Prior knowledge:
By secondary structure, chain A is mainly alpha-helical.
Amino acid sequence: MKIIEGKPLLVGDDFVDGFRFQTEWAWLIAIAFFLGGIGAGLFLVSVFFQFKLAALLGLLIVAFGKGGAHLLYLGHPLRAWRVILKPGSSWISRGMIATVVFTFFGFLWCAEVIPGFGWLVLKEGTFAGGLVISLAVISALILTIYDGLVMSSSPSLPFWNTALLPIFGFTEAFLGGVTLTILLIHFGLGGNLSANLNILEFVEVGLLLLNLLVVIMYLMAMFTSNLTSKVSALLLLRGKYAFYFLGGGIFAGFILTLFLIFYFYYTHQILALVGVALAELLGDFVVRFTFLKVGVYTPLSYR
Amino acid sequence: MRYGMAIDLKRCIGCNACTIACKQENGTPEGIFFTKTLANEVGKYPYVKRTYTPVLCNHCSEAPCMKVCPTGATHKRDDGIIMADQDKCVGCRACYVACPYKNRCYMPISLLKKGYYGVLNPFEKKKVETLQGEVAVKCSFCFQRVDQGLEPACVVTCITSARIFGNLDDPVSEVSKLIRLRNGRQPLAERNTDPSVYYLE
Lengths: 303, 201
């Protein structure tokens, strides 16, 4: 069973059977998932408020941030075009297609705010306008759950193999999108959208609590699932990654963020709002990163 | 036709001759193992024993690495051997993450340049010509030998004949008979990958 004196036997990639870590998906993949999530989330929130400047920012985060991180990670970036060849079975293929569709149609939708593209205005209510925004929104929705689907689609790492992961990605993406939208409006980039700030701040608190609930449910599910999932969950709470997960993911991402939201609500100091965004985004990234790092394989001797 | 292997765990003594033979056949650099033997300590002092579990690509019928591969680089031959096409691989490492047995490897290009002793020796130079860097690599059941009617290098090298290779679809092949007679088990069968490698205990 690979439990020695009450502790799971964690081994490196050597010649011993035990719980072995996945070591390949780490920093760059976490950055790509994080940027893909907040970029798509920001775009979706911006579409709701017709805030095209923020939508453009979301688009750039996805196209250059997520796309760039993925390209940097690939062993052969010049062959990246091949990634679209297997959408029938591979979520990476589907994600690549969604990214391309999102970048193209998202660009068309918010092109009018880009200097030199003012002529490219899509009239609302027309078939073309509806098609463009529909495709952009659908592909953005796919991007919000993409990382969860990529990670949960294979049975190899039990900690990832759960339907809660796409839900977590979805709520994190919207939370990041709402946080950045609030920040942009407070910096005067939202025009007449400041009237919606109270709603957005209310939504942010709601999403933050929902997100915390999803993380708690996730950990509870992992503790009660199987031994390998439990080992991963223990690594997050008591093991090698506890400092990062509890300090960055839970304290900064939820507790400090919530505290700063209320502090901002009563003081209206813009610095507190910047703090909210930084703490929330740091927490989002750390949770994604630690979830990647605690992926362990089931020992072969486990039965 | 479905090639497969039975590994008799009672016979394996953990000598890693298979590991060496595989490296010799495939010319894999330091740190890359298509097959190896995992040691496992069972029991508590003074009643302790060490067992060994040889591992290699299981050439699963429902290979998760093949499903997640976005380029089709990981594909299955008609005889069930799962292959990795180095020319199509983009190095996303999805196959590495998807393999429940952790039997896929990623080959950084730096490994192909330095060799085991800092400089490539003539043998390594020859072998490196067939390998690409920054791609995912794997055991191919020594298809170059199998296609000539030979057995994989790890099988012929095994000094205790713990590895038995053959056609799983042929009910009278030695491998099929052994699996049937000795209740061969597939590793982590609950993952629904239907491996072509069976362990005999």
